[in-house]
Design goal:
540 residues, alpha+beta, eight-stranded mixed beta sheet, two-stranded antiparallel sheet, 56% helix, 10% strand
Length: 540
């Protein structure tokens, strides 16, 4: 039954007491992700001929602002009409492709008429207006993210990590907070209890909420990626590592002012923030924010999202903060030891105070019975002894090999010199004869092959061929055990670690110095130059 014919069945059930106040219709079941993916791929392929026709029809005229703006407006109107009347997933996806194409043409046209910054900000406003007018929530969220990215470029077109980009991100967060406040005002304004007005306000607040969700997610992504490399994906990103911001930098001041303002606004209304643990956590985050402004921004966003009952967005803010902390590892202007000491001190402070709060908390449960406690203690002691035994046996074997093993040198092949995920180190690869390299490619990673090496008068071993099972080395030959590493096969180790700042010391390395046992097991003990002179000892 439509609203023009009278109240819906759900409203009638609520009025008659069959359902509780505030009952809502169940959400329609979602589509499986393979169906969604195939539908979007089909819509994209269907839209490509239309886009090609548009570009062929208008040609170079699309490069002028007026034509691009007019065609973009027509595409936006057509996409909006499709979305309003869509009853199938394919139609929604087709409308989305046309919508993005129209928005791009409109933004291009505005950029031709207006200067860069006003044009981008006007395009941001246009994206928000289109989003609020469209029915699907996921489209509004996507357009909200696009609007945030346009606003970010409009506020700081040349932003790079550590060079003012934090100010633009703080402005985006302030705009998001203002949007949240507007949403609350829409919901709690005068005459909010009138049924018809309340329904309209709920619809308006829901539309605005979807746009705000996309805006915040895009802002958090900008905060995280603007910090540079982080975690295990550092090497796959083109952005450079973030230079640490000093306590007096503009980025740090703006981020801390935003975090302080957020706390001042939330403290009177959120008793949880006045708890000792929360005060300590915020203080540590603020201190780290002096050097990592992105962390302070993510904390401000997370606090406001949590207070306004947006748990998913608060979790995304926490992930962005974790990314920023991970990017601090790649701040190349600071020594690793200093960065590690700063983060370890922050973690130790949090751990110590939380432990004290735990001790002062409610009474702990009674200790287990003496027999159970004794068994647990015995198990812990036995585990520690077994661990020490295994570790010390391994150390003894390595020390014996160093003392009694035969010294040999194996030529190195060029390799990547360092990786910040493990500190400073030289990645090692070894020179193999073509026949041996080809034979090793046929072996599974679980194999434990041995290579036959011929040793010259200097003690340099050349790895020539794969040893057959049970084969004994001839005169002038040795057996060398190989193991998988870094996409190939290596001798003993695929990396040589050294202290930070000593990379130049090991650049002349041309050979690896090994101690070789009778069974072919090898141990890397040093690197040597072309004259077999040892370059130094490992840092760890």
């Amino acid at each position: 039954m439509s609203r023009a014919d009278g109240p819906s069945l759900l409203e009638q059930a609520v009025r008659q007491g069959l359902l509780p106040e505030g009952a809502a219709a169940p959400a329609p079941p979602g589509h499986p992700w393979p169906v969604v993916l195939l539908s979007f791929a089909g819509a994209l392929m269907a839209a490509l001929p239309l886009a090609g026709f548009v570009f062929l029809l208008f040609g170079e005229a699309l490069m002028r602002g007026g034509t691009a703006l007019g065609v973009g407006a027509l595409l936006l109107a057509g996409a909006a009409l499709l979305l309003h009347r869509a009853r199938a997933l394919f139609v929604e996806h087709l409308a989305l492709v046309l919508l993005l194409l129209g928005l791009g043409l409109a933004a291009w046209g505005l950029a031709q008429w207006l200067p860069q910054r006003p044009g981008l900000l006007f395009a941001c406003t246009l994206a928000i207006a289109v989003a609020l007018a469209l029915p699907p929530a996921w489209v509004r969220t996507l357009l909200g993210a696009c609007a945030a990215l346009l606003a970010h470029q409009g506020l700081d077109p040349g932003s790079t990590a550590g060079s003012g980009g934090r100010i633009a991100e703080a402005a985006l967060l302030l705009a998001w907070a203002a949007g949240v406040g507007l949403q609350q005002a829409v919901l709690l304004g005068p005459d909010a209890r009138h049924p018809g007005l309340q329904r309209r306000r709920l619809r308006a607040a829901a539309r605005l909420d979807a746009v705000l969700a996309g805006w915040l997610l895009a802002t958090l992504a900008a905060i995280a990626l603007g910090s540079g490399h982080a975690m295990l994906v550092g090497a796959s990103l083109p952005a450079p590592g973030l230079r640490p911001a000093g306590p007096g930098s503009a980025d740090a001041i703006v981020a801390l002012v935003l975090l302080t303002g957020t706390l001042a606004a939330l403290l009177p209304r959120w008793p949880l923030l006045r708890a000792p643990a929360a005060v300590l956590l915020v203080a540590v985050v603020a201190a780290l924010g002096l050097f990592m402004p992105g962390l302070a921004l993510a904390a401000a966003a997370g606090l406001l999202a949590a207070r306004t009952h947006r748990p998913g967005q608060a979790a995304c803010a926490a992930l962005a903060g974790a990314w920023v902390i991970g990017s601090f590892y790649y701040s190349l202007d600071w020594p690793l030891a200093v960065k590690a000491l700063l983060l370890a001190a922050a973690g130790a402070l949090l751990g110590a105070v939380l432990w004290l709060l735990r001790e002062r908390g409610p009474a702990r449960p009674r200790a287990p019975a003496p027999r159970v406690a004794g068994r647990r203690t015995a198990a812990v002691v036995l585990g520690v002894l077994a661990t020490l035994l295994v570790v010390n046996v391994g150390i003894l074997q390595k020390e014996t090999l160093i003392a009694e093993g035969r010294p040999v040198w194996i030529e190195l092949a060029p390799a990547d010199p360092r990786s910040l995920m493990q500190g400073d180190y030289m990645a090692l690869a070894y020179r193999l004869e073509p026949a041996l390299a080809q034979a090793l490619q046929q072996l599974p990673p679980t194999a434990r092959p041995r290579a036959v090496a011929r040793v010259d008068a200097r003690g340099v071993a050349r790895l020539e061929r794969l040893a057959q099972p049970g084969e004994a080395p001839a005169a002038g030959e040795l057996l060398v055990a190989l193991k998988p590493g870094r996409g190939g096969w290596v001798v003993a180790a695929d990396a040589w670690f050294f202290a930070e700042g000593e990379a130049a010391r090991f650049e002349p390395a041309r050979y690896g110095e090994f101690r070789l046992g009778a069974d072919g097991e090898a141990l890397l003990v040093g690197l040597a130059d072309a004259g077999l002179r040892r370059l130094g000892s490992p840092a760890r």
